[in-house]
Amino acid sequence: MTFTCTVEGCETRSTHEFTKRSYEKGIVLVQCPGCKNRHLIADHLGWFKESTEDGKLRTVEDLLRARGEKVKRGRIAEDGVVEYYED
Ligand SMILES: [Zn+2]
Predict the structure, then answer these.
(1) pLDDT in tens, 17-62
(2) Euclidean distance between CA atoms 74 and 31, whole angstroms
(3) What residue spans define the domains of the chain?
(4) How remote is the CA of residue 6 from the centroid of ligand 1, in Å?
């Protein structure tokens, strides 16, 4: 997909690849090559809803680490895409 960054003053367009399965059933985040912010594209598992409700701002890596075992089935790609889906 082509993503346009929503950060004011950045608005960099970038193209990212991820599986349809993650997009429809799991979690997808992409990293903007301009400002390096991660943007949530899909969160069907509610992980990021939970992370904002407990009042602590966590990084994607922290969140993935907290999920431990499960994360092995996802991936963090070199292009900054994070995707995960359950079997
Ligand atoms: Zn950006």
Answers:
(1) 998 988 999 889 898 999 988 888 998 888 777 655 555 545 666 6
(2) 16
(3) 2-84
(4) 7
